[in-house]
């Protein structure tokens, strides 16, 4: 059974997944949110940003007290799955609209810059793979004569048809992740805001590691968009719900890299999902999140410790280190 209900001022709060009612055997949980359960039983389902009430329901005090991690039940127009009890979330940060920019005459604007060198041949035929899947990081293979993020010995090879879509901050992100994931143990957190291209950066990094050696894990439809040269199947893509149900079958597969999207869901080190992912045992871990950590040092430490376990000592040692710096 899960932990006891957390209360704040007589109100219980829970982190949940929710979706429209479904008759499927394995439900597909679509959205993250919070349930607020005050003492009067008039409960609210909030969205992930705690800006909008999604649904309402009435629960008795006994029903609220008996809620445990993993419970599933109807809540208004939705079905919910309890992830964990929590303290009251911080109020949402107000969104400040930027001032309207002053438009310049067309003649004074800076000309658009090409994101890549003019010498890049985007029409070159794709390089045919000459090998199948090999053990990751076993040996460095010869690289094709396409674009490289870096011109040194450990350059990250990216196919031209992906390279021509990358912006400068995305190239920097790929280099950052590539450098840290080639180490063992290694790991990184990519915390770009929504819309800055975390998916293409992650896919490019995984393919760069795969080109040089082999590896990884990430998101479904994007791989078919950006990669057609994988003749083997080195990527396993699954939801957190599937990990919770089948982590015992995943652990023996010896994954080289674990990529976790929506990583803010791993803040609680005692949550079932966190424990299931740790049991997989991948020594290289990449976390992706666009959700702010609300300036909580313990949350930052929790994600850093999941990325590279033990690297920063205990939570108290990490707090002292931050205070000293």
Automatic annotation (TrEMBL):
A GO molecular function annotation here is:
ATP binding
Q: Could you name the Gene Ontology cellular component terms for this entry?
A: nucleus
Enumerate the Gene Ontology biological process terms. double-strand break repair via homologous recombination; reciprocal meiotic recombination
Which domain of life does this protein belong to?
Answer: Eukaryota
Q: Which residues form the Helicase ATP-binding domain?
A: 201-310
* Membrane-spanning ranges: none
The protein's name in its UniProt record: Helicase ATP-binding domain-containing protein
Organism, by scientific name, is Mesorhabditis spiculigera
